[in-house]
Design brief:
Shape: globular
CATH superfamily of the largest domain: Zn peptidases
Distance between the termini: 22 Å
Radius of gyration: 21 Å
Number of strands: 15
CATH architecture of the largest domain: 3-Layer(aba) Sandwich
Number of helices: 10
Low-confidence stretches: 1-30, 98-103, 333-340
């Protein structure tokens, strides 16, 4: 996941919610419970699921689990051919070599699927609210693993993103029993870990009229809440978000509201269709993209509180119309498409950092940063002679380097400027 946070949030005007065409939200407390959260995550992140890698039998098992629950909640199929599934093909050769031809007929191609369900609202409007999360993960760690042991091992992805998938199921169950006036579209994406493949496929081949969508709410890594803190990205994608999020915060969560509408998760695909988006996130941790991202570290109580906040946000959206949620272009999106083609340092970004430079929360064993002496909490301000103002500048600097070379990395540590020599 990649996000850029600005040093000061936009001061968004308070939007007075009009109830001329829809009734006020119920503001009732949700029945979402920690025990239900734990139940779903335990299933999805079990060793038997082998990390739910895109296009595998275990991914299909997870997709069926999600679809079976949507069916049991009384949600209508919203995939292809009156099913809950939308299939797409993944060309593994392109993933292994981004410069390979997509037309390579000899390459391995996998069939993957999004899971889609529609909860019909009680009103007569054709507008809808989209709630999404990706359910795939890294499988045995062949793609994207930060593990240093060198051996294939199960990456269970309890937080990334069994937690978000669980949120999708919990919200679907809650709103099936507390039906809103507005239609709700629930989307479980695959292929996120391989580059937002499922959500990109959906927006290019939608099974509903996206022009009728009010907003898209994404949940990715929401299972490790600390100190009652939750980050919400996308706040600048409509002027209404700040007041909506604040009004919904009856649990006194410590909300970190971030303007950016893009990042390395599925809300980005919808942002580029000019749709207001939110991305709920409880921050990164040392187990990110490692086999240790397991169920035992999940804060089920914290996730339940976060989901109750999401439910209250949806209840407020249910009282609104599309013209009250005008899309606005959020800062940082112009640089979001930058690719990562150079070597990596083996660091874990601090997505909540709002200062100058690129702060890291940890370093990967066996990576250049670890070997060179970098530590969690360091703020990288220069790579070679290239200034690093934010995560995008960091990515751009690495794209100018080559594997095997040595480079000086300048950091701020405990208020002091320090220089380290790293072998890439």
């Amino acid at each position: 996941m990649r996000f850029n946070k600005f040093t000061s949030f936009l001061l968004l005007p308070v939007l007075l919610l009009s109830c001329a065409q829809k009734e006020s939200p119920s503001q009732t407390e949700t029945a979402i419970t920690a025990s239900d959260v734990e139940k779903h995550i335990t299933f999805l992140a079990a060793d038997a699921m082998k990390g739910r890698e895109t296009g595998t039998a275990e991914e299909a098992k997870a997709a069926n689990y999600i679809a079976d629950h949507f069916r049991s909640f009384g949600l209508d199929p919203a995939g292809e051919d009156n099913t809950y599934f939308q299939e797409f093909t993944v060309n593994m050769a392109v993933l292994e070599n981004p410069h390979a031809s997509g037309a390579d007929s000899s390459a391995e191609k996998r069939l993957s699927k999004n899971v889609a369900a529609l909860l019909q609202g009680t009103g007569d409007s054709e507008e809808l609210i989209i709630i999404g999360a990706h359910y795939d993960h890294l499988g045995m760690g062949n793609f994207g693993s930060l593990s240093s042991n060198g051996e294939p091992s199960i990456h269970n992805g309890a937080d990334d993103n069994a937690s978000g998938t669980t949120g999708l199921l919990e919200l679907a169950e809650y709103f099936s029993e507390n039906r809103p006036q507005t239609d709700l579209l629930f989307l479980a994406f695959s292929g996120e870990e391989m580059g937002l493949l499922g959500s990109q496929h959906f927006v290019e081949n939608p099974t509903v009229d996206l022009d009728q969508a009010l907003a898209m709410i994404n949940m990715d890594m929401i299972g490790r809440m600390n100190n009652n803190r939750a980050m919400i990205f996308g706040v600048a994608t409509t002027d209404a978000w700040e007041s909506i999020l604040t009004d919904a915060n009856t649990d006194s969560l410590d909300l970190d509201l971030v303007p950016d509408g893009t990042g390395a998760s599925d809300h980005t695909s919808f942002y580029y269709t000019d749709l207001p988006v939110l991305h709920y996130f409880t921050d990164t941790h040392a187990d990110y993209h490692r086999p240790s991202d397991d169920t035992e570290w999940i804060n089920a109580d914290g996730e339940a509180r976060l989901l109750q906040h999401v439910a209250r946000v949806i209840e407020q959206l249910d009282a609104m119309d599309k013209d009250e949620l005008a899309f606005t272009e959020a800062p940082g999106q112009q640089r979001q498409s930058m690719s990562m083609d150079g070597p990596t340092l083996g660091v874990l970004p601090d997505y909540g950092y709002d200062g100058d430079g690129f702060r890291i929360t940890g370093v990967s064993d066996g990576g250049p940063a670890k070997a060179g002496g970098l530590e969690g909490g360091d703020v990288i301000i220069k790579i070679g002679d290239m200034e690093v103002e934010d995560i995008y500048a960091y990515m751009g600097a690495l794209n100018e380097l080559e594997k095997g070379q040595s480079v000086e990395v300048t950091v701020i540590r405990d208020g002091q400027e320090m220089v380290f020599e790293l072998d890439l």
